[in-house]
């Protein structure tokens, strides 16, 4: 998988992450709408963009679980939660940190693991 396709897949995974969050917390304060999903996604996208700048600079394989997947995941979580904290003038609750970290790890690392398995099957 090319780095361009890997980058786009990461963008989509953050969108899925934000969509799931909006579905789980659908309320008047957090409406389930396209703009609401984008509002949830953009801080995590910013972290992912910073990670991808580093991935491109180091010429890493974007579809690899390690190090590219780990870098993209960790950067998106740290930046996304930091911006959430700044926007809400509060430290995110520990349960939010855990759920955001685990869910995004499943999405960021999961597709890479599946892609690796498919590549191995195709090569065999």
TrEMBL record:
<feature type="transmembrane region" description="Helical">
    <location>
        <begin position="92"/>
        <end position="111"/>
    </location>
</feature>
<keyword id="KW-0812">Transmembrane</keyword>
<keyword id="KW-1133">Transmembrane helix</keyword>
<feature type="transmembrane region" description="Helical">
    <location>
        <begin position="30"/>
        <end position="55"/>
    </location>
</feature>
<feature type="transmembrane region" description="Helical">
    <location>
        <begin position="7"/>
        <end position="24"/>
    </location>
</feature>
<keyword id="KW-0472">Membrane</keyword>
<dbReference type="Pfam" id="PF11255">
    <property type="entry name" value="DUF3054"/>
</dbReference>
<feature type="transmembrane region" description="Helical">
    <location>
        <begin position="67"/>
        <end position="86"/>
    </location>
</feature>
<dbReference type="InterPro" id="IPR021414">
    <property type="entry name" value="DUF3054"/>
</dbReference>
<protein>
    <submittedName>
        <fullName>DUF3054 domain-containing protein</fullName>
    </submittedName>
</protein>
């Amino acid at each position: 998988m090319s780095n361009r396709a890997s980058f786009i897949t990461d963008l989509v995974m953050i969108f899925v992450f934000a969509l799931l969050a909006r579905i789980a917390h659908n309320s008047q304060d957090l409406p389930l709408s396209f703009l609401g999903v984008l509002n949830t996604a953009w801080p995590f996208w910013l972290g992912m963009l910073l990670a991808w700048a580093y991935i491109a600079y180091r010429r890493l394989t974007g579809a690899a679980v390690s190090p590219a997947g780990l870098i993209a995941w960790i950067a998106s979580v740290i930046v996304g939660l930091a911006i959430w904290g700044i926007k809400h003038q509060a430290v995110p609750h520990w349960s939010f940190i855990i759920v955001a970290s685990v869910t995004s790890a499943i999405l960021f690392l999961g597709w890479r693991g599946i892609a690796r398995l498919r590549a191995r099957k195709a090569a065999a």
